[in-house]
Amino acid sequence: MNFLRGVMGAQSGGPQPSGAETIQKLCDRVASSTLLDDRRDAVRALKSLSKKYRLEVGIQAMPHLIHVLQTDRSDSEIIGYALDTLYNIMSNDLEEEEQEENSQKQVEDLGSQFTEIFIKQQENVTLLLTYLEEFDFHVRWPGVKLLTVLLKQQGPHVQQIILVSPMGVSRLMDLLADSREVIRNDGVLLLQQLTKSNAAIQKIVAFENAFERLLDIITDEGNSDGGIVVEDCLLLLQNLLKNNNSNQNFFKEGSYIQRMKPWFEVGDDNAGWSAQKVTNLHLMLQLVRVLVSPTNPPGATSSCQKAMFHCGLLQQLCTILMATGVPADILTETINTVSEVIRGCQMNQDYFASVNAPSNPPRPAIVVLLMSMVNERQPFVLRCAVLYCFQCFLYKNEKGQGEIVSTLLPSTIDATGNSVSAGQLLCGGLFSTDSLSNWCAAVALAHALQENATLKEQLLRVQLATSIGNPPVSLLQQCTNILSQGDKIDRRGSKVQTRVGLLMLLCTWLSNCPIAVTHFLHNPANVPFLTGQIAENLGEEEHLVQGLCALLLGISIYYNDNSLENYKKEKLKQLIEKRIGKENFIEKLGFISKHEFYSRAAQKPQPSFSSPDHMMFDHEFTKLVKELEGILTKAVYKSSEEDKQEEEVKKSLEQHDSIVTHYKNVIRVQDQELEELKKQVESLKVQNEQLQTAVSQQVSQIQQHKDQYNLLKVQLGKDNQHHSSHSDVAQMNGVQPKEISKLHEEVEEWKHKLQLLQEQLREKDSLIETLKLSPTAAGGTEQSSQTNKSSGPEVDSELYKEVETLRTQIQAQSADVIKLQSEKQELLQKLSITPVPVSGDDGTVMVAKTACLEGRLLTLLQGTKELKNEIAALSEEKASLKQQLDSSNSTVAILQNEKTKLQQEVAESKKEQDDLLVLLADQDQKIIALKNKLKELGEPVEDEDDTESGDQGEEDEEDDGEEEEEEDD
Fold first, then answer.
1. Share of the chain above pLDDT 90, in %
2. Which of 82, 100, 90, 5 has its CA nearest to residue 39?
3. What pLDDT does 555 receive?
4. Which H/E stretch holds residue 244?
5. Which of 140, 390, 406, 621 has the fewest CB atoms found within 10 Å of its own CB?
6. Whether residue 506 has pLDDT greater than 60
7. Backbone angles phi, psi at 364, to 5 degrees
8. Residue 247 confidence (pLDDT) above 50
């Protein structure tokens, strides 16, 4: 600090040093001091002097400051002072008291010169970009401000340096992610300067996720209610999107249009419209217009318009349009925005036609807007915006044009008169005392007729009631009356603006509509009025009216169908030659395109005029003038013979066009039929394949059933031959091998029991025999009789009874056995099974065995019946499958016949197309011959059909190739 005091002349006795000397000493200190603290103090002092002594510091200190940036990178404080000092000497944003009015230009040149010196070495800009990566606030913020000043002073040069610098743009994009708002906000300002008029940098910034970050900032700041940061973000978005189709497409595909809808969610309260909010909303509307501007490629504009409809943005804009309490400038810009969102988009135009104003009763938005357009108390810019909206609504919208014209026709006018229609408003504005309303209504009605010959003819039916007691006159007659009568009708005809509007309406109405020309010429006062206006030598203010009168008279000649004897083409030409002169007529016709108002209107569709007096031409009308000017000039100079030849050529061309159109339609119909036949063939092929697969499946199923049937037949034959094979029959009837083994075991058990019973029976038989022999043996000896006197008679009687009972039982059992054997024999005979002999005499065992056998036989009988039923069912199924197979074969045959017929039809259509091509070739030869004749006669002929014929040939070759492929199929 002692050093600074000495440098600044703090000693009381010495002379005060000048600013240049002080700066020189500080620069020497920066260059020669070895201590970092001394250099830092010197740079701080230079910073404090840089605003007052800007020139001296810039000249003497800039090299030393750059050296500090290169060598003292480790100390953030001295780097910050150096960057601030450079910013002060290059920036022109000084305080007002520091700038003198007479030296303002010198100050601006000074900043630009210092900037040029700094960026002469590209390494300086690259070094500055590296400091922007530092997170230290005292380094990063001054670096951002310094780079912004460099871009303001020498934008294109600095942009090129940053563009070739590795990761230069990416380093700057990181500023938007800084958590410190001051750096982030200044980063937005830096990117504004960086992206001006440089499409390459705009694309890089957009693909560095700029849209996402900027929209997040706008949302965080409160959308339209945000502060100046929102305004800066919107300006940066405009830089990125305006006249940059790539970024616009990226913005649309990234679904960022949907995020714009919350911007326009505004209330109806008047207190919520601050100045910043109005500015923000104005920029937001302009950003929407950038995406749907008529100067953009049609495809890109159309896709953005559809996206705005689907996300609800158009509906939100229409809500603002019909809301109350909206500031006038915001309402005007909203009308312009809605105009371009619906321009040329049928879907959006249909929606706009359905919008109603929140009134009682509800009125269509179009009617409400037209009321503002024809109201002379409304602001001029608002009326221009409404006119533009109406023009955009009718642009390429035949449906909307028909709806507007229908409100003028007698059959659709409301008899009660309660509702005001668009047609009534246009007629009221067309004949009001306000010349601006006359002009706007005439232009609006002309747009309702644009390129629509049908509506031009229908508008001839419109009748107007002029006054009580007088018959109604047509709309065409009323327009010509106002033109011809001049000052007699409320002095309206004397106003140039009114007459220009009516003449533009008449020219649009009569062009390409011979019936309207006939109606116009039917009034005997119209042609003398036009020739009188053209022939007079009036002032410059009337040149425009004279030119439009010449245009209207030329249209009456060119589109004249010679249906009126007194106003044929040749007589009108003679009248021009006698009354006006051909050269004078052409000169007056050229007044239109030479007028400055014509050039302004031809630039863009939106009507933009500095004052109401400058509203003379419409954009679409300038296109009509450009199209007709050369044609009408040729038409006036042509003789009657040339007209006849031209008429013949026209007729031949029209005939040729009609023939070509007819054949095109025929070919188009045949192409459609071929496409339908192709689709039918494809569907029949698919059906054929499905049926073939179904038939193959059915054939395989039939084969399986046949195999099963043969197997069952073989098995049944074996059972009839070998009845003893119970296991097979049991298995066929559902009896498992386990059951068969169990039955065998039961049979063995019964055999064992039978043997036991037979042994018991033998023992009893032997006992009976012994009992039979016992009485004879006892009677022979006396001793035995004496010993058995007491017990003999009782025993004999008991045994006898027992024997008798046994005999009766055996006899009964034997009878039962015999009976059972006979029944068994009968059953076996019925089944044709030989009986199995059973040995043994025991009746009980035989009865049991017979019962068991009967149960087995019944089971076999039931199984046999079930087998017979299954065989019958299989036979029926086989018959049904045969029928299905026969029907499938017949269906395949029918499909094959249909395919053959289709191929024959394709061949016939190909032959017809070949014949048509031959006819077209003949017509082309005739056209070429006619064109050669015209060229020999000296008439210029445009070969417009060459390209079309070439394209048609290629299409025919492609069609032939497709037909050959179909025949091969």
1. 36
2. 82
3. 93
4. none
5. 406
6. yes
7. -60, 145
8. yes
Residues whose CB is less than 8 angstroms from the CB of residue 394 and which lie 6 or more positions away in sequence, other chains included: 400, 401, 404, 447, 448, 450
* Backbone angles phi and psi of 464, in degrees to 5: -120, 140
What backbone torsions phi and psi does residue 714 show, to the nearest 5 degrees?
-65, -45
The token pair that represents 119 in the structure block: 């960026």
Q: Which residues, 6 or more positions from 758, have their beta carbon under 8 angstroms from its beta carbon?
A: 840, 841, 842, 845
Both tokens assigned to 232: 């800066």
C-alpha 215/C-alpha 260 separation (Å) is 9
Q: Strands 356-357, 363-364: parallel, antiparallel or unpaired by DSSP?
A: antiparallel
Which residue in 656, 545, 622, 634 sits closest to 586, CA to CA? 634
Cα distances (angstroms) measured from residue 771 to each of 75, 791, 801? 149, 16, 12
CA–CA distance, 387 with 379 (Å, rounded to integer): 13
Distance set, CA 442 to CA 214, 373, 402, 432, 467 (Å): 45, 12, 17, 11, 22
Tokens 């002999």 -> residue: 837
Phi and psi at 616, nearest 5°, equal -125, -40
Distance of alpha carbon 231 from alpha carbon 951, whole angstroms: 52
Q: How far apart, in whole angstroms, are the C-alpha atoms of residue 687 and residue 898?
A: 13
Dig out the tokens for 862 from the structure: 């039931």
- For the chain, give the number of residues: 969
Residue 774 clears pLDDT 80, i.e. is over it = no
Bridge partners, 357 (sequence order)? 363
- The 10 Å Cβ neighbour count of residue 761 is 18
Phi, psi of 691 (to 5 degrees): -65, -40
Amino acid at 526: N
Cα separation, 513 vs 453, in Å, equals 6
Residue 873 bridge partners (DSSP) = none
Residue 5, pLDDT > 90, answer no
Would you say the C-alpha torsion 542, 547, 551, 553 has a positive or negative sign?
positive
Mean pLDDT of the chain: 79
CA distances from 888 to 683, 894, 900 (A): 17, 10, 18
Q: In 221-312, which residue ranges form alpha helices assigned H by DSSP?
A: 228-241, 245-253, 275-291, 298-310
For tokens 């500031």, the residue is 327
What structural domains does the chain harbor? 18-94+105-194 (1.25.10.10), 463-638 (1.25.10.10)
Tell me if the bond preceding 15 is cis, omega within 30° of 0. Answer: no
Cut 0.70: pTM above it: no
Alpha carbon 584 to its chain's center: 55
Task: Give the pLDDT band of residue 21 (cuts 50, 70, 90).
Answer: confident
| Cβ–Cβ under 8 Å, residues 941 and 935 | yes
